[in-house]
Design goal:
heterodimer; A: alpha+beta; 6-stranded mixed sheet; 24% helix; globular; B: alpha/beta; 9-stranded mixed sheet; 4-stranded antiparallel sheet; 15 helices; 18 strands; binds guanosine-5'-triphosphate; binds iron/sulfur cluster; binds magnesium ion
């Protein structure tokens, strides 16, 4: 190990911050809806971080989308001051994380800023798929895990059993597992005490050259890129010249501060602490989540490990409804990526939709959220194409190409085989749903591999299944077949070859690249039928008849016609009220503007997502 | 007072007078009309006279046409109509129309109206089938229509319009033919055929939503429209506007002012006026409720001098900038199937040729076979008539028109 010889003599030592032995950095992890954000509310209250007036339910879910959907999408950090039972003052840095599987990248980044994790488990639901998924992430990151059983106020709660389930997994004494009701505030102080006693303090060296891990960021129109950091070694003040170790970009902070939970400026941040740096950077490329900030005058030897890069599961094209908004869409994606490190995108062009981007997402919910954020936060009108997984196409002659857009599939004659991603999935559920789940999975080409009984009456089924079969509505089906009791986790297994074909959709006799899809040969016929009838419902009647066809090669699988409009003319204009007429025309025109013109045909945005709406049978 | 911009001394303008009273409300009706408010009529007419006199003082204009619309203007007595007309500089050849509902007037009343100056009667026949009349909630039978026509003729009304509705729930070709035949048997000079549009909040719309009545089918309405076009052409009517047919020379002059996007005054509650100022224009809208209208026109209320024909009842004025005025001129004018948009008239008002202003949309519409033009006028092609909105849309500018307060 190198020890910088003169570090102590030239380095400044940040001692003015809270002593590291009195800092606790922890995140709250759980399966979706087990009450993380509600527990965070109680912790904020109990520590007096927010006053009763500032308080609202799931106060850390600040995005409109989070509040509307009642789901955490973004991890959020907040500093709390706490006087423990031992009479000592502690600085607690809490990060609330999302529970939905599509946002597990948020969780893994938050973990790297913490020494401990509160693992919240719903006392009725018990351990579910992301309880385990997130638990393993935390253990892999070397965190101390503190289990908490929540929602003990419910009649259906079974805190004893659930505490046992947890201890079977983590070891420890079931009687010592903290049981709380985050809703009613029962036992919240026990949680804070457990954090202080069980989560180790940070162990960075304040004398060493500064290293701060960027675990998240967002863009601010005035202060530029705001980097959220966990200071690992050293420390810095607002006036210190800094540098990104990976991109090399110099950073002269405009402001540094902590989350309280709103951004609150401070004079300095020292090792062990969590806060933010307003970098002033207006271009977003130079600041990457996972990079390490160091001092320009006394750089650290090597950056922190950073993050594994994300592997998107599904891909879709995102296009501006109006071609001229392309530049705005590009800027928006760039800025959104700062705040959503799991989003990836590259430019692409489509015959039907012109210029846009192929985007990669961690799942459909993620895709949904990205679309909504683009529309709301950036005021864009966009069209998204149906999601697709990434295929490997082995060509005759040995070359292999990867495609994530069905229309890119090369000519059949040049293809040796098409391989698709397969997943290992685990389904957690009560035993009685064994039959329906088996049936659902096998209908979608899934293969059973094994089963486990983690607790009495509960079973984990393991399957291998093509990713394409689970991206669309598998999760919803799983939920409805198990009355909401099943949960699902998955990971990539491998690529496997199968009999896959490209299905094209012709509108008014022209193939529309954005509507093409890759399907299994045996599903082609019924998917074609279903898609055509969906499109027929979605595409409004036009001035002329529009034939819709689904074809595989030269083979027409299904066809239907959207009849021409017969009558569209306003009736009487009462007493010369032209305004009313004009408003109707304006409304009609605005409606069309939200549609995409493909050849002569106006196609509503939903049509590109029609494959998602295919009803079964 | 100085004549307003764009108005020449003694210019002729179309005058619309709204009569917002009905005996009872028809099931499909969402117009500005009130039932059981007839007690207000005398006060209301006083207010209308006050508004007219205010407009009289404002500038020197002559009525080009007068139109009493409703509501049910035939609830007015001849002498009441006469007093209103006395406020307007009448010229001998002036078209004075009045909407009448069958069953509200007999021969003596019609004679009085005719003597007062009404020379064109528009009769709300709507259907020749009793079942349809009941479904629509009309307060009359077909016999009442027959009687009203007979009485109007006897009273000397030489210019008669019948309103009919098509696309009614349950209406097929046979029912529609019966209504058309019944109307033709009454030998009107003019026919207006309106497709039923189901307006939210009306009892009819409730009937449809609750499933008591099956809603109208737009494709069926299109067939019925085609059928009417054929029948009326055979009968020698000119199809001069999307919804209007007339014997040669009997087109409604008042409505032409709307379609040509000319100036018109709107008098009475909820009435709308249009006042071009150079290339732009103003749309003026009066307060909607008759009681409020009456209150606004209490003696002593004054309005500031304006280049616009406003009165104390003016509730909204909407500025229509030149590009919108042009668009409106296009989409209103194209409704006139023979006359179309006259290029000269357009050039006189806007200083530019319509064909130059709309080069791109016109060439696209022309390619699609929806519009044609020659040196004199632009017109819809016959196949574009039924889907004219799709054509009209092409002329709308990007930015919306803003509303301005009173
Ligand atoms: N009865 C009861 N309900 C609770 C308790 N804690 C949370 N809830 C409810 O459970 C639901 C989910 O709570 P959240 O705090 O949003 O859950 P979360 O784990 O943050 O959810 P995600 O962030 O979306 O994964 C809300 O309706 C809460 O009101 C509790 O102790 N008792
Ligand atoms: S007569 Fe005309 S205005 Fe009066 S209620 Fe019937 S439809 Fe409405
Ligand atoms: Mg949450």
């Amino acid at each position: 190990m190198f020890a910088p010889v003169r570090s102590v003599s030239i380095g400044r030592c940040y001692n003015s911050g809270m002593e590291q032995s009195h800092i606790r950095n922890f995140c709250i992890i759980a399966h979706i809806d087990h009450g993380k954000s509600t527990l965070a509310d109680r912790l904020l209250e109990a520590t007096g971080t927010l006053t009763a007036r500032e308080m609202q339910e799931q106060v850390l879910d600040t995005m409109d989308l989070e509040r509307e959907k009642g789901v955490t999408i973004k991890a959020s950090a907040v500093r709390m001051d706490y006087t423990a039972a031992d009479g000592e003052q502690y600085e607690l840095n809490l990060i609330d994380t999302p529970g939905h599987v599509d946002f597990s990248y948020e969780v893994s980044r938050a973990l790297a800023a913490c020494e401990g994790a509160l693992l919240v488990v719903d006392a009725t639901q018990g351990i579910e798929a992301q309880t385990l998924g997130n638990l393993y992430l935390a253990l892999d990151a070397g965190l101390e895990v503190v289990p908490v059983v929540n929602k003990i106020d419910l009649d259906s709660a079974r805190p004893e059993e659930v505490a046992h389930e947890i201890c079977d997994l983590l070891g420890g004494d079931p009687d010592e597992v903290v049981r709380v009701s985050a809703k009613e505030g029962t036992n919240v102080s026990a949680v804070l005490e457990a954090v202080v006693q069980q989560v180790p303090p940070p162990s960075g060296d304040r004398a060493k050259p500064t290293r701060a891990l960027i675990f998240d960021s967002h863009y601010d129109a005035y202060k530029g890129v705001i980097a959220y950091v966990r200071v690992v070694d050293g420390g810095f003040a607002r006036t210190d010249p800094l540098r990104m170790m990976v991109t090399g970009a110099p950073v002269d902070p405009v402001e540094i501060g902590i989350f309280g939970p709103e951004m609150r400026p401070v004079g300095q941040l020292a090792a062990g602490e969590v806060g933010y740096i307003a970098t002033g950077l207006k271009t977003v490329r130079e600041c990457r989540v996972g990079d390490t900030l160091t001092e320009r005058n006394r750089p650290a030897e090597a950056p922190l490990p950073g993050y594994r890069s994300v592997k998107p599961m599904v891909f879709a094209g995102i296009y501006p409804t109006e071609g001229e908004d392309y530049g705005e869409l590009r800027d928006a994606l760039e800025k959104l990526q700062l705040n959503d490190a799991s989003l990836v995108y590259v430019p692409e062009t489509s015959e039907a939709l012109n210029f846009g981007f192929r985007c990669g997402f961690l799942g459909l919910f993620h895709m949904d959220i990205v679309q909504e954020r683009l529309e709301r936060e950036y005021d864009l009108d966009i069209v998204a194409t149906a999601p697709s997984v990434q295929y490997q196409v082995a060509l005759r002659g040995g070359r292999v190409v990867e495609i994530s857009r069905p229309s890119d599939l090369p000519d059949e004659s040049s293809i040796e085989e098409i391989r698709e991603p397969w997943m290992h999935i685990q389904v957690f559920m009560p035993e009685q749903y064994y039959g329906p789940v088996m049936e659902l999975v096998t209908k979608r080409r899934g293969v059973f591999t094994k089963q486990e009984y983690p607790a009495p009456g509960r079973v984990i089924l393991y399957f291998d299944i093509p990713l394409a079969e689970i991206v669309v509505d598998f999760y919803d089906k799983l939920k409805s077949n198990t009355r909401g009791y099943a949960s699902l986790d998955y990971e990539f297994a491998e690529y496997r070859a199968d009999k896959l074909v490209k299905m094209e959709v012709l509108l008014n006799k022209q193939p529309v690249d954005a509507l093409a899809l890759i399907v299994h040969e045996k599903d082609a016929y019924h998917r074609g039928q279903a898609l055509v009838s969906q499109l027929k419902k979605l595409i409004p009647r036009q001035q002329f008849e529009v034939p819709i066809q689904a074809v595989v090669g030269k083979h027409v699988l299904s066809r239907a016609n959207v009849k021409a409009v017969r009558k569209d003319v306003l009736a009487k204009c009462y007493g010369g009220d032209v305004t009313r007429k004009r408003k109707l025309l304006e409304k009609q025109k605005a409606g069309k503007k939200r549609m995409k013109r493909i050849g002569q045909v106006s196609v509503p945005q939903e049509a590109f997502m029609a494959v998602l709406m295919l009803e079964d049978e | 007072m100085r004549p307003a911009n764009g108005i020449l001394p003694a210019m002729r303008v179309a005058v619309y007078i709204h009569v917002p009273f009905c005996r009872r409300r028809c099931r499909y009706c969402d117009f500005a009309t009130w039932a059981a408010l007839e007690g207000l009529i005398p006060a209301y007419l006083g207010a209308v006279r006050a508004e007219l006199s205010r407009l009289r003082q404002w500038a020197d204009w002559k009525a080009g046409t007068v139109y009493f619309g409703g509501g049910t203007p035939s609830l007015l007595k001849g002498h009441q109509v006469g007093r209103l007309l006395a406020q307007i500089q009448l010229t001998p050849d002036l078209e004075v129309s009045l909407e009448a509902n069958p069953g509200t007037v007999g021969r003596p009343e019609l004679e009085a109206l005719h003597r007062a100056g009404v020379n064109r009667l528009s009769l709300g026949m709507q259907s020749g089938n009793e079942r349809e009349l009941r479904m629509l909630g009309r307060a009359h039978t077909h016999q009442a229509v027959v009687d009203a026509v007979r009485d109007a003729r006897a009273a000397g009304v030489g210019n008669l319009n019948l309103d009919l509705m098509y696309g009614l729930p349950g209406q097929g070709r046979r029912q529609w033919k019966r209504s058309l035949d019944a109307a033709l048997a009454l030998q009107p000079e003019h026919l207006s055929l309106y497709a039923l549009s189901v307006e939210p909040g009306t009892p009819l719309s409730d009937d449809i939503e609750s499933g008591r009545i099956v809603g109208p089918d737009p494709d069926r309405a299109a067939d019925l429209y085609d059928q009417a076009c054929e029948v009326l052409m055979r009968e020698g009517f000119e199809h001069y506007e999307v919804s209007n047919w007339a014997r040669p020379g009997k087109a409604c002059l008042h409505n032409l002012a709307y379609w040509r996007n000319d100036a018109y005054l709107g008098v009475g509650a909820a009435a709308v006026g249009h006042w071009p100022v150079d290339q732009a224009g103003w749309r003026l809208r009066n307060v909607r409720h008759p009681q409020e209208y009456v209150a606004r026109l209490q003696p002593g209320v004054e309005v500031d001098a304006s280049e616009l024909p406003i009165s104390p009842a003016t509730d909204e004025r909407e500025y229509v900038p030149a590009d919108w005025a042009m668009a409106e001129t296009m989409f209103m004018g194209l409704r006139l199937l023979e006359e179309g948009v006259e290029r000269d008239r357009f050039r006189r008002r806007f200083g530019r040729d319509a064909v130059d202003v709309y080069t791109a949309p016109l060439s696209e519409l022309h390619r699609a076979g929806l519009i044609t033009w020659d040196d004199r006028r632009l017109r819809l092609t016959p196949r574009a008539v039924m889907t004219a909105n799709q054509v009209f849309e092409a002329f709308l500018p990007e930015a919306p028109v803003r509303d301005v307060g009173p």
